[in-house]
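Rotation project, supervised by the postdoc (A.L.). Task for the rotation student: set up a whole-complex structure prediction and record inputs and outputs verbatim in this book. Inputs entered:
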Amino acid sequence: MRTGNNNLTNRKLLVMGVFIAIGVIYLIRLFSLQVLDKHYKQLADNNALRFVTQYPARGKVYDRNGKLLVFNEAVYDLMVTPRQVNEAIKKDPLHPFDTVTFCHLLEIDKASFIERMNKAKNESYFKPSPFMTQVSKENFAHIAEMLYRFPGFFFQTRTVRHYPNAIAAHTLGDIGEISKNELEKDEENYYRQGDYIGKSGIEKSYEKELRGVKGLKVMMVDVHNREMGSFMEGELDKEPVAGKDLYLGLDAELQAYGEQLMVGKIGSIVAVEPSTGQILAFVTSPTYDPNLLVGRERGTHYNELKNDPMKPLINRAISGTYPPGSTFKTVVGLIAMQSGSITPATCFHCSGPGSMPIKCTHSHGSSPDFANAIMNSCNPYFYESFKTTINNPKFGNIKNGYDYWKDMTYKMGLGRKFNTDIPYERSGNIPSREYYDKMYGGQWNSVTIRSLGIGQGEVLVTPLQLCNIAALIANEGYYYPPHLIKCFGDTTAIPEVMTTKVDPGIDPKYVRTMKQGLRTVFSGPAGTARRYELKDIPQCGKTGTAQNPHGNYHSNFIAFAPYDNPKIALAVIIENGGYGATWAAPIASLMIEKYIRGYTVREDLEKRIMEGRISYKNER
Amino acid sequence: MNERNSIIGKIDWVTILIYLALVIIGWFSIFSAKYDEMHPSIFDLSQVYGKQLIWIGSSLLIGFVILLIDAKFFNAFSLWIYFFFLASLFVVLVYGKATNGATSWIELSANVKFQPSEFAKMATALALAGYLDRLDVDMQKRKDQIIAALLVLAPMALVLLQNDTGSAIVFVSFIFVLYREGFPGTGLVMVGGVVAILLFILTLVWSQKVMYIILGSLLVLTLTYYLITKRKGIFKMLGVFAFMFVFVFSVDYAFHKVLQTHQQNRILVMLGKLDDPKGVGYNVHQSKIAIGSGGFTGKGFLQGTQTKYDFVPEQHTDFIFCTVGEEGGFLGTALVVLLYVALLVRIILLAERQRSTFSRVYGYAIAGILFVHVAINIGMTIGLVPVIGIPLPFLSYGGSSMLAFTIMLAIFVKQDANRLNIL
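Outputs recorded:
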């Protein structure tokens, strides 16, 4: 068939007729819908909708014994929808927006009013943005009464954090308005400008659990800014889901006690429960009252703290990296025994202050065995142990030996982050073989890097890592990655990484030898911490006196107790405190006593420590 | 004169200009519907409006290439194209990705998805045109009728199997072509279809019993009339009534047993039987508020309040007409409706001036396809048609539909430009 005949050609009329008829029907329908029917216009126009975000209550935080550490207090944010303000002015030009009264009510000047209004317009013309945040309860009642005169404005309730005990500021962390950067990274698109988000501490690591899920209430609002009730009977509303409560491993009393002990000193105390890895005390000094970083004065206080030369905002427990000094001999000794390079019976010669290449600062017999060396903290013994390990013929050459040694320290939790629930952790430093190759042009041996054997030189650790070494020895060979959380308020499981045992692969019999050695540091006749021995609590420990570029020695100590079934393991570092036995050891011993006994009996010692002040000349 | 220069003079610029106007209205509407203060540029490629620009650009490019291709190509390869897309419909059934209950997408990579059903309509139009163009084909022969019907029904069935009812309904549009080409009974089917739709609606609105009473009284009146006037064909008339009774009976059965609950609800809402502004009726309710609040002149570009709050789901795809209605008012909606009517009438007029059956059939086919899309989509936003998820040609957001409709139209424009070369 080539062309249609005339009969069929006429059929185009019917087809076009159908097209045109439908077009006409639709035009009529549209005309009635859009022009004749005012009903839809009323629905859309007169009842502006107000989208009120329902902020969930942020989860509360408790210590390990259920003592309240963080709770919420209500504050009120005055919100504005710029479009509704302008519409209202347009609709009713006889009653213009009374800026004077409004400014008077809020106790702001006109310039500030315009600035805030412009900021809100820049956020969004259509959606509400905060005009004035955290209005106090008293002002709220007063303003809310008058608000009907100012269309486009309404209050939104929100909560801020409050800390009844004013302890553990760094651990608890804080919340603050979300930054532009954080907004951009928010892939779920959950947050809005002006929302609060955990900025540090557990507020940051458990942001998702603590915050809950925002709800939404869609309200109809008439031209007089009065809420006319729920839109569509609340069908679009979403109830907020409250945040989860959090129980920390922290012991509030021990934490407070630690903070008291540290007054006037710069440094840190970290205590964990060896059987779980839960952090019992997380002290950094100097510290501050967490309530300072709440409310409208947050900015001012934050700047004051930031500019303080003692840098109280730094959490030294995780971001201070220190030379471990003699506490590191535990690590060196364990690796030496595990690699088969020494046995507990191995003796090395010590010529006291005349030893080469590292002199000894302690007086003891001239040829100590392992037990003797750890009790007396003999430098030559551990230098030799380190040397024998990396020179061990089974590794082929010293560089392979060094790789083995570094790998072992890594498995023991050094030179890396634990990545549990503590934000801003630092890795410390165990240098790599490549680092030394570069530094010494490939020509280096055990003498070149001898300082590592006694915890000096390039090696740097955080107090948290050091505490973990104490826990590892207390447990006779394994540890749980140290973490802050104990459990959630509901049955949610805590992340697996925190409940997974880590075994660096050191034979428990060697760790037991080390443990016995650390016991003699308190109990032995020449033990470096014998002055702090308690009859009823068998303590173990190791002193460290670390040279550093900032002045006097750092006073370091690791400890755990009781010997048989350790309940607490800790590390103490007092910057420029001198000998390990001077400050760090007694602080550790007092912490142990406080935790295990619940009270302390050594009043004189406690008084000396609490009232003791170390003078710091340099800026930290 | 060289081929390339001549094409500019020969193409139908009216069609092209209407097309461009619709595409630009669509792009600005998408921008307005999805406007985000953080991304205020219409060219922002991270946003849907930026992406739509890419689709528009690539559509224009491909459309231009089609204008350069030899017009005979599409006739010659019509069956190949048809079978290619028939095969891809099969592939979708097996490997497809389900969106909104329908399995109609093929995922080529993480970012590139494509919807063969959008292209299958065009391929069917080509195949039907190619088949009817053959000299040995006669619409009065039973065998040829069956083959023509199968060409349409095969892809329709596959799309139905994908659970994509909306796209399947579009294949009904081929009735216009068949009617125009003298396929017997199509006129009756069209009239019968209208009667059937009326019976269907009335049965659901008034219930079966009422319908039996009405049909019964009609039957008595007709029989009386026939007996008194002694006209012939009384048995034919009895047959028609019998059929209507059976139809009314089966409507009730089909509605409750065959249709799925959400489809039942959509129909009931449209019929006003079910008042449900929260559930199924929500979209339509919000859509009507948005369009209705536009008034005569509209609220102005980017000034829509209803469309700014994501009231209407799928605002930028199936419900893009709401944005036109809210921000452009009656002037805007009338303009768009008139542009579509003008385009459809233009295509029919162009189709009638073709010398080849291929071009004419193809023109009628695409006019029908566009018509069904437009009628269903706009009808749904103004509450005249149940909610069926098919895009508004040239306006809705989406790569597959933009490309498919552009290619479809470009092929026709090319055929038209080439009409004088056909002897």
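Student's summary: Chain B touches chain A through 53 residues (CB under 8 Å).
Supervisor addendum: Chain B has a mean pLDDT of 84.
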